[in-house]
Design goal:
CATH architecture of the largest domain: 3-Layer(aba) Sandwich
CATH superfamily of the largest domain: Type I PLP-dependent aspartate aminotransferase-like (Major domain)
Keywords: Aminotransferase, Pyridoxal phosphate, Transferase
Number of domains: 2
CATH topology of the largest domain: Aspartate Aminotransferase, domain 2
GO molecular function, one term: transaminase activity
Cofactor: pyridoxal 5'-phosphate
Bound molecules: pyridoxal-5'-phosphate
Radius of gyration: 24 Å
Number of helices: 12
GO biological process, one term: alpha-amino acid metabolic process
Oligomer: single chain
Shape: globular
Distance between the termini: 66 Å
Strand order of the largest sheet: 4-12-11-9-8-5-6-7
Family: Belongs to the class-I pyridoxal-phosphate-dependent aminotransferase family.
């Protein structure tokens, strides 16, 4: 067997990535740790002037059970005081810090979860949510003239729900051309991907092959689909053959509630085994679904060369992700340990499994024969196909969702909102994360009325045309 190759990411970096320079002052901070050094460097405020004396976090008995705590510690209380508090309140980390320790913790965690030995091919960078890191990674990678393969339907994240055409939120503001790769009930379809690549020179004469593939492998937003491992393997092989990077946006990885022990391994876990190489996968994880979405913490696992550019963009724009959020998360994670955190996530996932079951029960009650969907094994979405036309033709959900459903008092997202390049679709997305059973029942009853109205119109139109 030939030795593993670490992909050189340099040829993938954008022209703009060269323009980001390390912040001069920050580059000097490591010298502060030299014993005896007196630092007059930073224009930091003095933390003694801040009004906080301590911050105490009271934990819920976790969804999974008791978090681990050592000795006499109260297992449900974490207090940030003195040095730890100062570190949480200060912008620039003064010591070998919790912030760096959070990244070190996460490196060990990634190694544990994805069975990747720590080596020079990858590292972990914390950001203000995974979307912040995705944007910066795309900024570091995409130049004018590049093509980006985009799993479709795809979440527009911050785009307003009534914005029909357009692109994945921030990608719209970046250079590059989006190429849709259709997903189905099993996520990204490698056969569709291969067709696009096989025909590339005909469909895109004179254009370079795509540089990136963006995909949501678990509990996709919006489709709820999770791609099985055998498909990931095919996608990885295509990535090597056609030399593109895989941006693995796995925000729902910890919200997996399918059969125990059968969660597909990540692209990051598989790349070495499948392709004998490392560094082609850029992975994004998020704490938003399992710790707090307001803390705005996510992490990127990627080639250190890419991480350096992303960190340079951060240090020149928002300086760093919130210290307070990082110190809080680190205090919790280091107390729980990897297994405690994963047990907590399993509890969160069980919560959403129960929500899914309730929603599907009432959806079946009201929508049988009028709609169909694939039951998700991760995440918090159902992607519902409306069955409107008696002859089985696909309907366009747009008017039904925006007009009929709204007038009956129920809101959902029309599938058009997830089509980067526009186009009709019979789907709509519902989220079952927040909704209680009585409201879910009423929502599905109202949706039924909207679909029945659309169906009556479709039948009338068909008989008029007959
Ligand atoms: C697929 C996907 N990725 C990323 C995000 C954003 O994650 P974060 O809150 O870590 O920025 C979301 C938002 O909900 C999402 O649905």
């Amino acid at each position: 067997m030939s030795p593993p190759i670490t992909l050189d990411i340099a040829p993938f970096l954008s022209e703009k990535s060269q323009l980001w320079k390390a912040c001069g002052i920050r580059g000097l901070f490591p010298l502060e740790h030299i014993p005896g050094m007196i630092s007059l460097l930073a224009g930091r405020p003095n933390t003694s002037t801040f009004p906080f004396d301590s911050i105490t976090m009271k934990l819920k008995p976790t969804l999974a059970g008791m978090p681990a705590a050592s000795g006499d510690e109260d297992p449900f209380t974490i207090s940030l005081e003195e040095d730890e508090l100062n570190e949480a309140l200060q912008c620039v980390p003064p010591l070998p810090t919790r912030l760096m320790r959070a990244e070190q913790w996460l490196e060990k965690f990634q190694s544990h979860v994805h069975k990747r030995v720590p080596d020079a091919s990858w590292d972990v960078t914390v950001g203000s949510g995974s979307q912040d890191l995705m944007y910066k990674a795309c900024e570091a990678l995409i130049s004018d003239g590049d093509h980006i393969l985009l799993e479709t339907p795809v979440s527009l994240h911050s785009a307003s729900w009534y914005k029909t055409p357009g692109t994945l939120g921030f990608l719209a503001a970046l250079p590059g051309t989006l190429v849709e790769v259709r997903a189905d009930s099993e996520g990204l379809n490698p056969a569709n991907l291969e067709t696009i690549l096989l025909n590339w020179e005909t469909t895109h004469p004179g254009k370079p092959y795509p540089k990136l593939l963006y995909t949501i492998p678990s509990g996709s937003n919006p489709t709820g689909a999770s791609i099985p491992e055998h498909r990931k393997i095919e996608v990885l092989k295509l990535a090597k053959k056609y030399n593109f990077l895989i941006l693995e946006d796995d925000a729902y990885a910890f919200v997996y509630y399918g059969p125990e022990g059968q969660q597909a391994r990540s692209y990051f876990a598989l790349e070495l085994e499948v392709n004998g190489e490392m560094g082609r996968v850029v992975r994004f994880d998020s704490f938003s679904k399992v710790l707090s979405s307001g803390m705005r913490l996510g992490y990127m696992t990627a080639s250190p060369r890419l991480s350096t550019v992303v960190s340079m963009i951060t240090s020149n724009t928002n300086l760093q992700p919130s210290s307070l959020a990082q110190v809080m998360a680190y205090a919790l994670l280091s107390r729980w340990g990897p297994e405690g955190f994963l047990a907590h996530c399993a509890g969160v996932a069980a919560f959403y499994r129960a929500r899914r079951d309730v929603f599907e029960r009432v959806a079946r009650k009201h929508l049988s024969g009028l709609a169909e969907w694939t039951s998700p094994i991760a995440g918090m979405f159902l992607y519902i196909k409306l069955l409107v036309h008696p002859d089985g033709r696909d309907a366009d959900s747009e008017e039904i969702v925006r007009v009929k459903a709204v007038s009956k008092g129920v809101l959902a997202v029309p599938g058009t909102a997830f089509m980067p390049l526009g186009g009709a679709t019979p789907f709509l997305r519902v989220s079952f994360s927040l909704i209680e059973e009585d409201k879910a029942d009423e929502a599905c009853r109202r949706l039924r009325e909207a679909i029945l109205e659309a169906r009556a119109e479709a039948v009338a139109a068909a008989s008029k045309n007959a």
